[in-house]
Amino acid sequence: MSVGIAWLLRQPGLGLTLRGGRTGKDRPIGFVQPTELLDPRPWLSGGELVLTTGLGLQPEEGGDYVRRLAEAGIAALGFGTGLSHERIPPSVLEAADAVGLALLEVPYTTPFAAVSRAVTARLAEQQYELVRRAADTQVRITRAALRGGVAAIVRELAVAASAAVAYLDERSGEVAAHPEAAAELAEQISELRRDGAGSVTTSRPGRTLTVQPVMHAGLVSGHLAVQADRPLENVELVLIGHAVSLVTLELDKPRRLRAERNSLGAKAFGLLVDGVLDSGDALEYLADAVGARNRIRILRLHTPAAADVRRVLDAGLGARQRPLYARSGDEALTVLLRGEDTLSDVAELLADLAPPQARTLRAGLSAAHRLADTRRAVEQAEHAVAAADAAHRLVEFDATHGTALLASPAVRAVLESVAASTVSALADYDRGRGTRLVASLRAFLEANGQWEAAAAALEVHRHTLRSRIAKAEQVLGVDLGDARVRAELLLALLIGEPAPQSCSRSS
Fold it and tell me: Which residues lie closer than 8 Å to 361 by C-beta, 6 or more apart?
């Protein structure tokens, strides 16, 4: 911001007159500095209007005095007449013309304070105008962002700052520029940025270039470059900062939209599991998480680090352009997956878990079901996770192996009680007499009561097997002709196995 000499001369209340140095009359005035020092250079920074009455200045010293001020880079010299000097000394006039320093005569009736107030007031007006323009521009840039995204932000900033502006997306390499030729700035960004972060500004006569990083999720997503043919004003730097913030928000839109979509889908999923929402209505909200032919699977996870596991799942599914619809409980997550997802897919989604989190995780995956059978899938996932242990953290429910019941802790507890009074009695009999009643009974039951098949499996004659089964009936006091008895005894025999075969396991 500055005040023109021509504007100052036009102020009627001041009565200033240009007396010399007309070639310098276009220099801008940035500040008013009254001083009576014969050599004020140490206290000048350039661009000032120096006001003096020439106190202590001898007529023959005027030339050196003016040259010293010109060396300091002042904008103009205001010489007050009628006090120390009736008229401006000729040596001052001649030197002002020689060095091209605008020389203004300040009449005795005009206080220096009046000149200072006029300049200060004009600078304040300019500052206000800049702030107002910046506020209006911020509104325009913000509206442009809502309508046209990054390209519109770049365009509005370029117009407001009368500069060339370009944004380089580091991930895609795409460039948004205004005017079109500003796309060349993208080539200079890599030369100016420092280690991928931090702002960089370079200046030389007729050119100022500033490069600002745009951060997203803690990483540099791109750079905004602004080039002008002059130094950038403070207000323009504020506008650049505002534009960087808007670009950051624009880049964050997909993440926020995903979070909102996940939240809405999770609510619909929860209502479906609770039986409040039927599958037909739920499909409207969950379609993008459902697999082919509307098949789904449920993943049940038990972990003390539920928030961390959820973040890893969200990142993994997000990378696959899929939503995360999940409901949380106490150290548990229930996640909706597609019917075609496998145990290997789940292991891949969880691969980025930190070792301490992975060690405490237990997960169960249901079989594929129609969306209408979601609650049944949840039950299967719960059975599967109950069968998980430190050796097999990921377990898949599979009813096709015929022993799905053994994955339920409650069922296993009942069967263990049955086995204690049946299988254990046969085992004690075998140990005491050297017989093979337990193995014979199991072969008979697994062969569905087929004598030939069971005898062949044991490599004994069928009559031998008949004798052993009769003895087993006698020891146990049961009738193996009853199908329910046979079923219960088979499960009691199977309960002693190390791991139920109804669940596929992954470590």
Answer: 301, 302, 303, 305, 309, 350, 353, 393
In angstroms, what CA-CA distances link 356 with 309, 314, 387?
Answer: 11, 19, 21
pLDDT value of residue 2: 87
Kindly give, in sequence order, each residue whose CB lies less than 8 Å from that of residue 157, ignoring residues fewer than 6 positions away: 141, 163, 165, 178, 226, 239, 240, 243
> Identity (one letter) of the amino acid at 141?
I
Tokens of 461: 């004659």
pLDDT at 114: 96
Pairing between β-strand 48-52 and β-strand 76-80 as defined by DSSP bridges: parallel
- Rounded CA-CA distance 504/507 in Å is 10
Of 221, 235, 99, 109, the closest CA to residue 161 belongs to 235
Residue spans of the chain under pLDDT 50: 400-403, 498-503
Query: Do β-strands 326-329 and 332-338 pair in parallel, antiparallel, or remain unpaired?
Result: antiparallel
Per the CB < 8 A criterion, the answer to whether 435 and 472 are in contact is no
Which sign, positive or negative, has the C-alpha torsion 273, 275, 276, 280? positive
Number of Cβ within 10 Å of residue 198's Cβ equals 12
Place of tokens 């878990």: 353
According to the model, what pLDDT value does residue 499 have?
40
Supply the DSSP string of 244-296, one letter for each residue: HHHHHHHHHHHHHHHHHHHHHHHHHHHHHHTTSS-HHHHHHHHGGG--GGGEE
Selection from 256, 246, 255 nearest residue 212 by Cα:
246
440 conformational bin, left if phi > 0, alpha if psi -120 to 50, beta if neither: alpha
| SS3 state at 209 | strand
Radius of gyration of the chain (CA): 44
CA distances from 283 to 272, 296, 299, 339 (A): 10, 11, 18, 14
Q: Whole-angstrom Cα distance, residue 195 to residue 187? A: 16
Contacts of 182 (CB under 8 A, 6+ apart): 158, 164, 165, 166, 225, 227
